[in-house]
Amino acid sequence: MEVAKLTDVTRIYRIGEVETRALNGITMTIESGEFTSLVGPSGSGKTTLLQLIGCLDRPTSGQVVINGKETTNLNRNQRADLRKGTIGFVFQFFALIPTLTAYENVEMPLLLNGKSPSERRKRVMELLEAVDITNHAHHRPDQLSGGQQQRVAVARALSTNPKMILADEPTANLDTENGEQVMEIMKKLNKETGTTFVFATHDPRVIKHATRVVTLHDGLIEKDSKQ
Amino acid sequence: MMNYFKMAYRNLGRHRRRSILSGLALALGTALLMFIAAFFEGEMRSSMEATLRLNSGHLQVQDADYDPDKLSVAWEYLIENPQQVAAQIEALDEVQAATPRLFASGIVSVADESIGVQIMGIVPDSEANAPYTEGLVSGEFLSADDREGIVIGLPLAESLGLKVGDQLNLLVNTSDGSVDEQLFTVRGIFTTGTTAYDKGIVFLPLAKSQAFSGAENHASMIFILLKDREQAEAVAAAIQGPGYQVKTWTELNELLVLVNDFSDAYLSIINLIILGVTATVIVNTLLMSVFERTREIGILSAIGMKGRQVITLFLAEASLLALGGITFGSLAGWAISAYYGKVGIYFGDFGMSNDFILQDRIYTILTPDAALNLIVTAFIITVLSSLYPARMASRMEPVEALHKAQ
Lengths: 227, 406
Hints:
heterodimer, A: alpha/beta, 6-stranded mixed sheet, 35% helix, globular, B: alpha+beta, two-stranded antiparallel sheet, 15 helices, 53% helix
């Protein structure tokens, strides 16, 4: 089953008179349960592609269908709604809300989804356990290590049972041990829950876990291989 | 909703000093406005009361040709048989007191010093003289048949070095256009709390003032106090008669009534100016907060927070700031107003016009209406002004917000 389908997608950024073509006509499909890495040098369009799949941005031309829904013409709030139930994000800079505890950060998407307090409590504890952070549930991000923060971010991304998790350089700011730990957790969750994972990364530690590697160059798909 | 306030509270705590300073600006504004409102109220009430009790009363019956500025005691400007007219008016249910008064111009001399005064002939036992009898600081008030006694104000006594029992020479312009003079003995010295009034007036018994000025059986006016001043128009209509004019307190104090009517508008303008300034501080604080938290707003948006939810979050921050600042400011404003309501603020001799008497000391009065009005206005203005930064935050595209921060 297709989770995301992109047809001839371009994305052009205009800054003053200068045009930058970040994506040059990408056509690809992501199937449910994939563990896919988008790789390529800096400026190849990995992050842009990830943002389009995540409905954080809109393409200049082409079509992006997420979970069977055409997204190109959705407004800001409609895209927020679509993200809320379908897509989870893990960012390079951990991206937790600094004033909220680990528990509350994981709880936030559930709050936005209108879940009841008992449902929220159950789900948050389940996830904190899955990423092995239960003992630090009531710590704020600045009281957690980078690895712990990224694990909380993974738990938050998973909280609403999204179809797909998009991770932008999830291990870039982690040491080898923590990076490996985070990847193991994601791999395990992919196997157990069937959640689709898409990474934008340079990191061989991430690439080695991927079941599919899509290589980008100058905004085009250079290679698409299963492993 | 509780969660928004929890987040808002923690966000304000991130820059505690900045939040406290913004709250203090709002508190200061609220306290200041509360004090100004209390001062205005105190000033207007004091002025209204002093003007009505000392100068105009609620109604005056005058001869149709009477001109209050001339202080003439020529018979054609005066009311004949004033005691009889006053007694008829006083018999009305709505009337608290009606008493004849005769005004003449005179000069008080002691040794080499002379001061121009207004001589007021009064019926000593009338209730309308309460401000003077209650304000006696030494001696006693006049009796109706006293032929040599005079009561003077404290500032006049001080400037001429007079005390009870001393004598002064009083010169009067008489009804036939000439002058007369006589020695009087100071029976009593009074103060009404309004220096400008007290230094320019002396009291004689009505009968003596009539004889002295040649007004005989005449008076300048019947001075009337009502049980309820709102009935002035109705009573005025009831006591109209040929040859007389009946003036109500609103006609006699046009300037005062106008100022009173406009005082609410003045206050509203001052409120808007001061609250506008404090609102700017709040907007500034929230704008800084929006710029600093651009990435965070991007993250919240990425995990599904909608525009209106972002607005709610910032409005919650503004509401908490407003709640803290306004509560603190209201308490401070109330305390300052209560203090000056008790001890008063001394301004001294303001000067006086016929329309407007200001007492030397003004006591602030904070009414619950004024306080509530101010609290609600301050809260609404603060929250409304925070809409701008809140909307700005809500319109950020998540991808741009995330990019900017990196």
